[in-house]
Specification:
alpha/beta, 13 helices, Aspartate Aminotransferase, domain 2, 5-stranded mixed β-sheet, globular, 2 domains, Aspartate Aminotransferase, domain 1, 7-stranded mixed β-sheet
Length: 372
């Protein structure tokens, strides 16, 4: 049974994807209210019928500008944006090369295509090169998360784009966990790597993480956006994004552009959480954005650790099979830009208690002997 929120509580939230703390920002909430009052509670239809408003077009222009892409199209979720991009651009004469740790929405989208799927090791550029060189198909698409959703590390985007250009392939990058977090202004990993705007690069975005709203988008060459508009089933046959969500996301983009310190703060807090956890004896992944995984191993230990954190007033994610492979259950912590010193102190206390309960020793205690 999922944890149900019944109202505000005093738990420190390190489980949500509200990386910049904008979901409750009065400006973002106010923009959502204003959009609903102007355009209605729902969008009333698909984008090609009655669902497109001037607000949707303004959001698309703002998203494209923010990620340094020439055009963008908004969808009602990031999941549907991934399905649209992959199922529209992949046919039976295409090989799809996918990182083994890609998000489920990317995996599901690939399974819906008629293309041949090749799964390569995590961040294994050599394996991608081999798959491209050995393919019998005319076309190829490389698919990767930008920042991986569980381990929190960054894909080698420059190297992948170099291979894509060499082998006349497309590169689809899911920026769900990098938009608003990577780059000086949170422009995302592709823009930070200098590959956004390339004709063969397609970015998928979510509005529900750093932007604190709901929905998704695709940013790409205008010809690709036009193809998606006329051929992507999750665009044509789905009710358009609600105006309130569009208004909230647009305001969040304005805030990020005007307050780049938010982007620096969330990364600084992620690094601080990682350092503190490692001092307490936890084995941690190194965050490229806001996500930190504390590796536990067995599911029961991970659940016990998450429950210990909750008792200490900190809400963390607990990932275990089938969300992650056997033997690598973990706590997933997500930093936020608006964490205060008291939040960080409470988190350290909670992680210390959780470590004690599942038998993890602080660094100073590891290997020590009683010499009395």
């Amino acid at each position: 049974m999922p944890r149900v929120r019944t109202g505000p509580d005093d738990l420190v939230d390190l489980a949500s994807n509200d990386y910049l703390g904008l979901s409750h920002d009065p400006r973002v909430v106010g923009a959502a209210v204003a959009a609903a009052q102007q355009w209605g509670a729902g969008s009333t239809g698909s984008r090609l019928v009655t669902g497109s408003t001037a607000l949707h077009l303004e959001l698309e222009d703002a998203l494209a500008t923010h990620v340094a892409a020439p055009a963008a199209r908004v969808f009602s979720s990031g999941y549907l944006a991934n399905i649209a991009a992959i199922t529209t651009l992949v046919d039976s004469d295409t090989v799809v090369i996918s990182d083994e740790l890609n998000h489920a929405s990317l995996i599901d989208a690939i399974r819906l295509t008629r293309g041949r799927r090749v799964v390569v090791g995590h961040r294994d550029v050599g394996a991608v090169a081999a798959a491209l060189a050995d393919r019998p198909e005319t076309k190829a698409v490389i698919v990767t998360d930008a920042v991986f959703s569980v381990d929190g590390d960054l894909a080698p985007l420059r190297e992948l784009q170099t291979l894509a250009v060499e082998h006349d392939a497309m590169l689809i990058v899911d920026e769900a966990h990098s938009l608003g977090v990577v780059g000086d202004h949170g422009e995302g990993a592709a823009a930070d790597a200098g590959i956004s705007g390339e004709a063969n690069v397609v970015l998928t975005l979510t509005l529900s993480k750093s932007l604190g709203s709901q929905g998704g988008a695709i940013a790409a060459d205008p010809a690709i956006i036009e193809l998606l508009t006329s051929a992507a089933r999750t665009f044509i046959f789905d009710t358009a994004l609600a105006p309130a969500s569009a208004g909230a996301a647009l305001e969040a983009l304005h805030i990020i552009r005007s307050q780049p310190q938010l982007v620096a703060d969330v990364r600084a807090h992620a690094s601080a959480l990682q350092w503190a956890a490692e001092q307490l004896g936890w084995t941690s992944t190194t965050p490229s954005g806001a996500v930190i995984s504390l590796l536990v191993g067995e599911p029961r230990a991970a659940v016990a650790a998450a429950e210990a954190c909750a008792r200490e007033g900190v809400w963390v994610g607990c990932f275990r099979p089938p969300s992650v492979p056997d033997g690598v259950s973990r706590l997933r912590l997500t930093a936020r830009a608006n964490l205060g010193d008291s939040d960080l102190a409470r988190t350290v206390q909670a992680l210390a208690q959780a470590a004690t309960e599942i038998g993890i020793a602080p660094i100073d205690d590891v290997g020590s002997e009683d010499t009395s």
